[in-house]
Amino acid sequence: MNSLPLLLAAASVGFLYVILTKGRREKGLPPGPPTLPFLGNLHQIPVKGSYLKFTEWASQYGGLYSLKLGTGTAIVITDPRLVKEVIDRKSSKYSNRPESFVAHTITGGSHLLVMQYGPLWRTMRKLVHQHFMETAVEKSHIHVQNAGAVQMLRDFCVRPDLHMLHPKRYSNSIIMSLVYGVRTPSVHTAHMTQLYEMMVRILSLPFLCTQGMPTDRAFVLFQENWSKVMEPGNTPPVDIYSFLHYIPQKLFGNWLSRAKEVRDEMCQLYGQYLDLVVSRRKKIGSTGSFMDTVLDQNEKLGLTRHQLYFLGGVLMEGGSDTSSSIILAFIHAMTKWPQVLKKAQAEIGNVIGEDRMPAWSDYGSLPYVAATVKEAMRWRPAVPLAFPHAAAEDDWIDGHFIPKSSTIIVNGWGMHHNEARFGNPSVFDPDHYKGQTALAPELANASDYTTRDHYGYGTGRRICPGIHVAERNLFLAISKLIWAFSIEPGVDESGKVIEPDLDPRTGYSEGFLVCANDFPCRIMPRSEAKRESIMREYQRAQEEVFSRFESPSS
Known about the structure:
Layout: H1 4-21, H2 50-61, E1 64-69, E2 72-77, H3 80-88, H4 101-107, H5 119-132, H6 134-158, H7 166-180, H8 190-203, H9 215-230, H10 255-284, H11 290-301, H12 305-334, H13 338-351, H14 367-379, E3 389-390, E4 395-397, E5 400-402, E6 407-410, H15 412-416, H16 440-445, H17 467-484, E7 485-489, E8 521-525, H18 528-544
Helix pairs in contact: 4-10, 5-11, 6-7, 6-17, 6-18, 7-12, 8-9, 8-10, 10-12, 12-14, 12-17, 14-17
């Protein structure tokens, strides 16, 4: 008797069983949207604005639900209580990252953001913490930050038309000064021009055409490009379906070549700044920058050149992107809600007067301004979905099974726009934080999860190590902008006011990181006296602070 037909039939049945059962939600998992065989919920995760869909699902399935990603599982948390109980209090179980072939291709395992929890991560994290802990920021870095904010005001006075770039230059210059000892004095600085050109090269790829685009717009789009690589739904799921490695990449927009080009450009960029520090040390020794302190210890640490590239690079990325995105969100909001700006200006005038700019020492005396900063972080978070964590072992949450290696997604957008916590959450209203002036690090570490202000800095052991710098960056920038300027919506050629597009779907970029799209606005000094004060303070900053750093010519 020929057994071949029986074998083929058995194989077919087995294949059908795999196809029909893989992708199903296993018993014990948290609830979630219906699945399809083989795909699970992959077909339902949008390429654009996934955080909005995740929030919609949270309203249907609750603060803890599951998604099936083929054979894998993702757990979405949109409940502050569970963030505290799971990510914070069980941090030893939830500090890993999901395995990502794309991320590893780009970073080689040396990038602190996507690196797995382990000895190298702890070494790098400790180095960052030592240089950017609160005492170091208060003692040294705050002077650089204050001077940088003064220059940003001066830049708005001189070139108000470049309002989309001034916050980016501000945040980039601060982190460059602290990490490498090199300022970014203007958007046309030589190394920034090179950076823009590099970004244009990266963006001149099949999936996003930017040939002929001005470099300032290309810079904005590069940030979106890198974040798009990391957003759920934007790359083929090679970590879920290994056979996709063998499918011609051109069918997926040459995704692997794109990833390798991003890798090469990053190594070139980060290597350039590392070489600059090494060369300077040979001439004048250490200047006390972050990379100087790392190199001082590296004989003992034994970090490779590639690891040094990305140790500095991750700080450059994080320090440049998130703060500037929040500052732009604040400016964007003020074109719609001028009463907020006027109330904040009145508080500054009543507390410290009109003759001097706010300083960090004024933070505790300006509760409405402090609340305005928190509201900017809540209203349009730079990272709506915190970078995913991964479960290191099987666990149970509220009676639901969480399998080992599950991807854990903290839905910050959903918690920030929860009407039960923030009434009318789409409206920019600092009174959402009335009476709450404690800084974000204190609230993140508090045992009472109900007091946490926002999730813009992440959670657990993966919380942003530059949180103390970021808090001061934002307060100094936003408080000084409030003190100095009137902010109004833009007008068209006929003088008609252009209605601000505040919709997160159309007014903001797509990707893991989001930022306001280029929007028209008018930013004007509130008086000639304030303009003169800005120019005097800028001259003082040049003499007392900027002169201590390398400052490439334009």
